[in-house]
Amino acid sequence: MARTAGSFGGVTGPRVLSTAQRLFARHGYAAVSMRQIASEVGVQAGALYNYIPDKQSLLFDLMRTHMDEVLQAWEDEPHPTGDPLAELEAFTRFHVRFHLERREAVFIAYMELRNLDPENLEALLARRKAYEESLTDILRRAKAARLVSISDPKVAAYGVIAMLTGVQTWFKDGGDLSREKVADIYWEMTRGAVGAMRG
Amino acid sequence: MARTAGSFGGVTGPRVLSTAQRLFARHGYAAVSMRQIASEVGVQAGALYNYIPDKQSLLFDLMRTHMDEVLQAWEDEPHPTGDPLAELEAFTRFHVRFHLERREAVFIAYMELRNLDPENLEALLARRKAYEESLTDILRRAKAARLVSISDPKVAAYGVIAMLTGVQTWFKDGGDLSREKVADIYWEMTRGAVGAMRG
DNA sequence: GTCTATATCTCGATAGAC
DNA sequence: GTCTATCGAGATATAGAC
């Protein structure tokens, strides 16, 4: 019956991932050593290799998992279909909410692309492209229905996503604005940016 | 008369800076070694220390210089005063143009804040804040004159700057869109995002 | 599953010859 | 001003005992 301390429920593995995520987000992948991660997990550096093959895999696992969760979360998000503007509002609020809920993972996903091996980079960019495409598709249909005044749905999608993602660089809980209120503001800005009719 | 090869016109010093800028932008500060920089400059690692006291100073010099140049360039940029919407258009076009002209420096300025020593970070954030404030000020006056529909000039400034800066993540020269045309699109999106009257 | 110990390598920075 | 040589530290990853 007796088992090794760390194996109860398999807590060490997940702790390696969450600790690495926190440290990578705070100091950057290249600036964080395996010894630092091990130290915060509470094991020796060598023990990490029971859970991950190497440092690069650790980074890629975090980034791939994050992107898969974003894609899955948007797929699962209840949102209307058939009304492009309603879809755009749902996407905007979803993106702001999700990016405020997962700030560490979001930060890593945007900052550490350069540190991915070529094949890992390719895999990650494919997922990012799929996510961007879900917004571009909404904007394309909105344009076709003459609900927005944009000329280039792809460029508009880049602009909107950059604007929305930026919320995580300044927002602080406990300030003047609630997350709800911030989402309202960003939806107002998004609606304006794409030239949607006010209604 | 004879001087050491590298000292003619003092070319090595600037080359250290430009090489470091290129490498930091491409691979990240922490991932680039002094030996790499020296190798691309064409000298041995030890020779770098004739031009810079240490690696951290090299990073800070690049970032501080960039921010000072942004601030100076906007100050020198001919733009109307007194008409907040005309100022906003000038700022938008200036920001897009400048950020496409200095992509390496811009990239570093946004990605390497975490690698600055505390006192250097403070100095850099003060400059960034001053730049953001020049946009916030425009938006505040535009709001006072009821030319825009935003509720919070500070949040609107964050949103606009994030949207505009994002142009450097996707724009490629030689594609379907010229820089001029891209600036037109971003001005259209900015005008909409702040809820400016169409005129 | 974690430990200690270590192999192998690279890092930033310095010293001193020329 | 650049070189060679090197110091001391810290890096990733592995081996083998328990």
UniProtKB/TrEMBL annotation, chains A, B:
Classification via InterPro entries: Homeodomain-like_sf (IPR009057), HTH-type_TetR-like_transc_reg (IPR050109), HTH_TetR (IPR001647), KstR2_TetR_C (IPR041490), Tet_transcr_reg_TetR-rel_C_sf (IPR036271)
Designated name of the protein: TetR/AcrR family transcriptional regulator
DNA-binding region: 33-52
Pfam families: TetR_C_24, TetR_N
Organism: Meridianimarinicoccus marinus
Coiled coil: none
Superkingdom of the source species: Bacteria
Residue stretches making up the HTH tetR-type domain: 10-70
Lineage, highest ranks first: Bacteria, Pseudomonadati, Pseudomonadota, Alphaproteobacteria, Rhodobacterales
Keywords from the UniProt entry: DNA-binding, Transcription, Transcription regulation
